[in-house]
């Protein structure tokens, strides 16, 4: 059971981390392009 | 503009390279903007694409030199490798086999993913985010897609680095040469319901090979209830969202979205509640 709990936690944390990476890059790109536009 | 009759109907007179077709295309809002808001595809974009292609080719060459991927020895029926792993990009699917019946993990779920991705441009009528990166204007779309993609990748990560002998789970610090004891204790939801609620095992109806008990009927209620609640909540409380999509798009989108959410839900039911199958019939198990 403990092993299964560990796998469950790993799966959750892993999914959230990868999601965070995708979202982080998207938000960073959004802001970077906004700033570039403002400069113009 | 002078027009000439053709077999296809009336076309505008030829203008330069487009043969008059450019004049037929309705101008979009972006095209109506002045030239100062635009950069040209050639050379601006094509040069960037060429440079990206060269950089990626160089990167791949470098990777293939530092990390060779030789073929394994010829297959032999005497020595079956344990575990037998698919190529890395299929390991997510192979990992799903732990949690789902083969017809679901190998046929239904991959088909839904492909059909869903093909349908996505038709389901999504929102023009925001076209041609530029945005999270703030497309929160639901970006979150939903990121979740599905992240789930796909984490299953691949597990298949590549955490599955060892007999497809058992191995942490990096475990002894990868010793077999792990097979942990049982998984029970179908209908058996749990029978035991906890003290339900009878006598079938209510028998449909050929299918003996429908009260517990079995309850599992159908749970399964269909999941979709019913999922379809119902946005319909009742987020009417603007429903109206923006329309009946067909909404139902397609919610079915795909709920099926995607159902995958981790089923995985957690197995991992944390020791439920093997939510729904059991003689023909399929979910």
Give your account of this protein's structure:
The complex is a heterodimer of chains A (40) and B (286). Chain A has 40 residues and is mainly α. Chain A has one domain (1-40). Helices cover 95% and strands 0% of the residues of chain A. Chain A contains 1 helix and no strands. The longest helix of chain A has 38 residues, at 2-39. The radius of gyration of chain A is 17 Å and the shape is rod-shaped. The mean pLDDT of chain A is 90. By secondary structure, chain B is mainly alpha-helical. Chain B has 9 helices and 4 strands; from the N terminus they run ββααααααββααα. Chain B has helices at residues 29-32, 41-66, 91-99, 102-123, 139-161, 189-197, 214-237, 239-245, 247-273; strands spanning 3-6, 9-12, 205-207, 210-212. In chain B, the strands form 2 sheets. Chain B has a two-stranded antiparallel sheet with strand order 1-2. In chain B, strands 3-4 form a two-stranded antiparallel sheet. The longest helix of chain B has 27 residues, at 247-273. The N and C termini of chain B lie far apart (64 Å). Residues 1-6 of chain B have low confidence and may be disordered.
Q: Span between N and C termini of chain B?
A: 64 Å
Total beta-strand segments of chain A: 0
Number of self-contained structural domains of chain B? 3
Strand order of the largest sheet of chain B: 1-2
The total number of structural domains of chain A is 1
Could you tell me the strand content of chain A as a percent range? under 5%
Q: How would you describe the shape of chain B? A: flat
Q: Overall mean pLDDT score of chain A?
A: 90
Largest sheet of chain A: none
Indicate the multimeric state. heterodimer
Share of helix of chain B, binned: 40-55%
Describe the main β-sheet of chain B briefly: 2 strands, antiparallel
Low-confidence stretches of chain B: 1-6
> Could you tell me the number of beta strands of chain B?
4
Number of helices of chain A: 1
Cα shape of chain A: rod-shaped
Averaged pLDDT of chain B? 86
Radius of gyration from the alpha-carbon trace of chain A, in angstroms: 17 Å
């Amino acid at each position: 059971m403990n092993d299964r709990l560990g796998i469950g936690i790993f799966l959750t944390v892993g999914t959230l981390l990868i999601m965070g990476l995708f979202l982080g890059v998207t938000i960073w790109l959004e802001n970077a392009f906004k700033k570039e536009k403002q400069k113009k | 503009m002078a027009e000439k009759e053709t077999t296809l109907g009336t076309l505008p007179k030829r203008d330069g390279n487009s043969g008059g077709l450019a004049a037929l295309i309705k101008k979009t809002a972006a095209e109506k903007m002045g030239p100062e808001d635009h950069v040209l595809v050639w050379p601006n974009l094509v040069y960037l694409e060429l440079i990206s292609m060269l950089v990626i080719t160089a990167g791949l060459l470098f990777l293939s030199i530092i990390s060779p991927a030789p073929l394994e020895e010829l297959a032999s029926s005497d020595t079956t490798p344990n575990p037998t792993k698919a190529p890395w990009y299929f390991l997510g699917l192979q990992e799903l086999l732990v949690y789902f019946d083969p017809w679901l993990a190998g046929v239904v779920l991959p088909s839904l993913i492909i059909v869903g991705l093909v349908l996505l441009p038709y389901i999504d009528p929102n023009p925001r985010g076209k041609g530029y990166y945005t999270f703030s204007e497309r929160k639901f779309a970006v979150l939903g897609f990121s979740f599905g993609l992240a789930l796909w990748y984490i299953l691949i990560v597990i298949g590549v680095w955490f599955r060892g002998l007999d497809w058992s789970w191995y942490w990096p610090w475990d002894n990868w040469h010793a077999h792990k004891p097979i942990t049982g204790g998984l029970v179908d939801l209908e058996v749990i319901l029978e035991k906890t609620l003290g339900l009878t095992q006598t079938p209510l109806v028998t449909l050929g090979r299918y003996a429908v008990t009260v517990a079995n009927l309850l599992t159908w209620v749970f399964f269909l209830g999941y979709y019913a609640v999922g379809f119902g909540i946005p319909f009742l409380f987020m009417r603007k969202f429903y109206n923006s999509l329309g009946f067909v798009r909404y139902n397609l989108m919610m079915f795909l979205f709920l099926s995607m959410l159902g995958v981790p839900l089923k995985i957690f039911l197995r991992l944390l509640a020791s439920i093997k199958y939510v729904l059991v019939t003689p023909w399929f198990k979910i």
